[in-house]
Amino acid sequence: MLDLRLIRERPEGVARALATRGGAEADRVKHVLAADARRRARVKEADDLKAEHNQASKEAGRQYRGNIPEDVREAMRARSDRIKALDDEIRGIDEEIAQQMLDIPNLPHPSVPVGASEADNPEVRRWGTPRDFTFTPKAHEELGEALGLLDFERAAKLAKSRFTVLWGPAALLERALSQFMLDLHTREHGYTEVWTPHLVSGDTMLRTGQLPKFEEQLFKTVEPDDSRTLYLIPTAEVPLTALHGGEFLAEATLPRRYVAFTPCYRREAGTYGKDMKGMIRQHQFDKVELVKVTTPAQSYDELESMVKHAEEVLRRLDLPYRVVELCTADIGFNAAKTYDLEVWLPGQGKYREISSCSNCEAFQARRAEIRYRPAGGGRAEFCHTLNGSGLAVGRTLIAVLENYQDADGSVTIPQALRPYMGGLERLTALAQ
Questions:
Q1: Does 4-102 match 118-427 in CATH topology?
Q2: Strand 256-265 and strand 284-294: pairing?
């Protein structure tokens, strides 16, 4: 959530920044300003009436000593009724402003390139050279089905499309990748592993910017005994970021770096026909998520290190990738600045997103009320929050299958994963 004072004091600058995102975001600033002006007018009128009412009450008490004439009482009642009506109207305007503020996205950082679509995302760097195959490389879904390791038909029978059953060594590979990532981030990169709920309240979703914007993308459950709604998390970013909601953290404890492995659940509403084959766009997938809570002065250095930590996973697996910086029209609702890591998929002949690392600055912290107390004293300030995939496990499995495939249809296990695979060196056809 943006600071209302910022909108009030710099409306044109905020509108210009939001306009670079595209869409109608800038128009929301006008609505907020109009409501805010209405509110301030009502507050002034109410304050003036309250002062007048208090003075009149004192004078009536002194002048009439408890025997107040009916016409004076009627005037006092009229003022009191008007004050109550104004207070009710102010509360309604407050709710209107609060709802409008929830729909306004974060402002892009000044360094973010202005663009109209993902086609305008500049490449920052590349690492690794795509393998020169002596045969035509297959896509992961074809490889996996031929080996009997990826089962899309049975998954659809169990649930619906966009789910996958992993058999035998493929399930082991998914688990190995998760453990490898967790070990790297906790033992070498200094993150604290956290195990969190996979179901969270609507308030938690609201505080982290998932609601109301992404309601259609979420799976939710309703408890029959009290009709309470709980949402399946779309990413561990949600519970990790909300961990310190409503808290005041000591500056000396920042930055805080957390990592969690969780399944993630997304409805993928509005993506029908897009990436329907294979495991690229699933309703359920695993992810190792990185979250940081920092001071404003720390956050951009921490963003750069987070990107490097995600990159290191790909480097250890020897998977070619590139880093792109998202332009203003492509950054997410909560983000002020974002880098995407895109891994090379030879079966598709292109780079595909495997991690997105964002600095949300104080946007989520203001919604969730996460503050820190400066070491030198003074007023508590809002923290900055960051999040990134370290990595999306299913997409990493896809990248391993496609980049390490052999001419006979088998798949070589990367050296870094073999200790997690019980020494297994190759994926071969599984008897069903």
A1: no
A2: antiparallel
Residue 258's CB is within 10 A of a number of other CB atoms, namely: 23
Rg (CA), the chain: 27
SS3 390: strand
Look at residue 425 and give its three-state secondary structure: coil
Per run of 10 residues, the mean pLDDT along the chain (length 432 residues) is 95 94 82 96 96 90 80 90 96 96 96 97 98 97 97 97 97 98 98 98 97 95 89 98 98 98 93 84 97 98 98 98 98 98 97 98 98 95 98 98 97 98 95 65
Residue 249, H or E segment: strand 248-250
The DSSP secondary structure of 371-390, one letter per residue, reads EEE-TT-SS-EE-EEEEEEE
Residue with tokens 């309470």: 228
Q: Please, what's the b/e burial string for 120-146 (b: 16 or more CB within 10 A of its CB; e: otherwise)? A: ebeeeeeebeeeeeeeebbbbbbbbee
Is-above-0.85 flag for pTM? yes
Domain residue ranges in the chain: 4-102, 118-427
Chain-centroid distance of CA 252 in Å reads 26
Where in the sequence numbering do the catalytic residues fall?
266, 281, 353, 356, 395
Three-state secondary-structure class, residue 2: coil
200 contacts: CB under 8 Å, gap ≥ 6: 230, 231, 233, 238, 239, 242
DSSP output for 84-147: HHHHHHHHHHHHHHHHHHHTSPPPPPTTSPP-SSGGGPPEEEEES-----SS-PPPHHHHHHHH
236 phi/psi in degrees, rounded to 5 = -70, -10
201: β partners: 230
Predicted local distance difference test score (pLDDT) of residue 227: 84
Distance from C-alpha of 197 to C-alpha of 240, rounded to nearest angstrom: 10
Q: How far apart are CA 165 and CA 157, in angstroms?
A: 10
| Topology given in CATH for the domain delimited by 4-102 | Helix Hairpins (1.10.287)
Class of 118-427 in CATH: alpha beta
